[in-house]
Amino acid sequence: MESTTSLVPTKPAITRAVRSQALDDLIMGTNSSSIVSKRSVERLYYPNEPPYFRYFVKKFQRRAPLINRGYWLRLRTIDVIVKQFLSRCTGPKIVINLGCGSDVLPWQSHVRYGNECEDALFIDIDYPDLMRKKRAIVLETPQLQGLLGPSFEVSQSDEDLVLLRSKQYCQIGCDLRELDALRKVLESLADLSNCPILFVAEVSVTYMDTESADNLLKWASSVGKAEFCLLEQLLPYGRGHPFAQTMLKHFEKLKTPPRSVAVYPTVSDQFKRFRSRGWSTVRIWDLWEAWSCDEFVKAEERVALDDVEPFDEWEEFMLFARHYFVLHASAAENTETMNRMPDMQTSKAQRGQELSIDFTTIPISRKRRFGAFATLQDVEGQKFALNMTGLGSNAREESYDVYSLDSRATSAPSLPLTGPSSRMCFTVTDLGSYGTLLVGGRGSPANALSDCWLLKNDHGWSWHSTWKLAAPLYRHSALRLPGTSLVLVAGGKTGRSQISKDYYVFSPEKGWLRCKIAGDVPKPSFGSILCNNPMSSSKSKHSGFICGGIDRSGLVVEEKYEWTLHTDYEQASIYIHWSEKQLTCKQPTITFTIMCGEFSPELSIFGAQTVDINGNTFICGGMGGDPSSDGQAMYCLSSSESKANIAKINRCSDDAATSPFMIGSSVLYHDGRIIIAGGGATCFSMGTFWETNVYQALVPAVLKSGRDRASDGLKPDKVHFIYSHRVVSSTSAQKSDSRVSRPDGETKISTIARLSLSSASEFESILQRGQPVVIENLHLGDCLKNWNADYMTDRVGGDKKVSSTTALIFDTSQKTLALLWPKLRRAIVCIYGHCQMTGRRSNQPNSKKTFPAWLQTSYCQKS
Predict the structure, then answer these.
(1) Domains and CATH numbers, the chain
(2) Model confidence over 554-613: pLDDT tens digits?
(3) pLDDT in tens, 725-773
(4) Exposed, middle or buried, 59 (CB in 10 Å: 0-12/13-18/19+)?
(5) Strands across the sheet containing 720-726
(6) What is the pTM of this model?
(7) Sign of the C-alpha dihedral, residues 140, 141, 144, 146?
(8) Looking at the Swiss-Prot or TrEMBL record, what is one Pfam family this protein matches (predicted)?
């Protein structure tokens, strides 16, 4: 190694008179988190390339799939622009990385584009302290030092701006606000006037005060044949949007707020910023547009990403991508080899009718997303909503949030203690008298579920397993067909990267029927909007629309289709297998017709929730291919004059911070009002926003039914939270049997043995075998004879207070023993019998410990 003192300009005397060293340290600290994430991407997504980030990260930390994919896209967009520059410019050229941190762009470019880099000089610029650390790592790592060649110079003075110099790579330690010093040091390294130069700034100059950053951009446009690649944050939906709130709070907590977004929050603002500072050609994309553009990411590359790691954070990925942009600008008057600037990102939606809605916010403080609502009614006619399972703050929830839908509710409904296993991304559909159908869902993105359940009121609410799906399914769409108890299920994912191409009809009496598909068959997709046509339906023929969702290429589907479903089963036969038998049913036929220009492009949405309102469809939330779909947008599909119309739902308050954030929300229509609960999103690496409020609003009058309470001018009841009900997964929910089966498979009737016990060893033998038996002639003592209302009241006292827990267990609001006794008497023997049957010898129930003193006198005297 050759080392000499660099003969370059030294720092000016006045450097940081008005600058805080502490702030500089905080900004440099942002490099640490970023570089760990990039190392995660490098190891997972580029296993065949040299691991250059590895040398700057002491310990590998695998990031979440959302963060990995976001950083992969950030790195890709910059890599593409750098590649285009290197390929387009012949002869000597310079790539200058402003605020480079520990980025390894020079090394990666040489590995990927070696021939184009022969005449290229890469220059890294950042704070001197950070660059000295980077220099030390480069010099002590042979895999990095190799880029320097056999001859290079290392600065020996703290006053030198050039810390490391070689033919192909240089390092500069300089404050980017000292533009005169920066120009001098660059001129000492190359002839700037005749050299193409690409400036790269990835989330770096945004930490400068905006005036200084603007001066830097204007100065850069005057340096040689300059081009600029900038990647920074955006606020496309304003500061009040949940993602923006979370992002800004994150950086404020770090005391490193991004300053540019305050002045240039949108892509239009950034475009004008560059045009007014000497850049004649400006191209700009938010990162979702870049993801969707073959110039940056080809379809086969998007598909291949799913093979690296399971991924299902699509709404959150889209939110992240909408809040970042990449820009490529050129100071040259005409750059023929550069593509023309794309149209600015303005919505091309054809605005139709608009409706207004006014939400009432009900603070609840419940954290749940990707669950679903089910409604039920108790014996007294009180109505409730259950927001079921889904994802909580730490894991998938094994509970339901129980809400009262009317003011008459004074106690909680009696709910099943067992049911489907915890899951997310499933569907729940009301089948009327047949109960409520739960279909599929997932644990992790690689663990799709095929089990289906019916919530019925058979002498009390309980879950019953029903026909399984032909294949596991999540992120599917489900729709009850008008006037029937049939459910149409469309699309969805069957695994980490497989999308279902099938359509099914569920009949509570016949099970799952796979549809024959005809017409303009849509691309397989998941997370689509599926709704009925408000103008057309009959007993055996139904029609509707399907649009949006994400297809195999990772893009939001732009095409919209009208579907017609014949359920008269006259077309063909389908065979549904369970066990080793075969059942023949008729096959329904679904026919598709592509719709040309009839619907707004705003309906190209992924992950929206839909709810039927008197034949109209409310579309709530989700993220879309059109920038206006931001997780808070709402639309209504209605009909008038024999024509389907799309209406934008405007909130009476335009404040995004007070509007529901409908990513993973549960939506319900009841009694003239729409109710929204739950939802939220992980905002990249910056934290999670939870929608902890419940929102309630009267639907527009034009959509109301005469049966609605609100239609009579009465004020609707206010939704209120009662409690969270925990549910234990039923044993049958854990079985991995993937056969398409009738409820409980092929039914076999087995005789259960009946026996009497003569010794404790016989009882122990029964427990060891684990087989059901009926035990007869048990002696439970005098309790069966003595324990009646009069006896217990006499022994304990009729005014004996009952704990709230005891009252809740027995589903009663009665507070004294005399009033509670009718229910207690029926249950006490069952409780004791359960203890005897499930207890092992080591923990057999002890009457003196298990039961309170007031029961011990009569408790099984022979035990």
Answers:
(1) 24-327 (3.40.50.150), 355-569+586-731 (2.120.10.80), 751-784 (no CATH)
(2) 999 999 999 999 987 543 333 333 333 334 457 899 999 998 865 667 789 999 999 999
(3) 999 887 544 444 434 445 544 445 567 777 777 777 677 666 655 668 7
(4) exposed
(5) 372-377, 383-388, 399-404, 720-726
(6) 0.81
(7) positive
(8) LCM
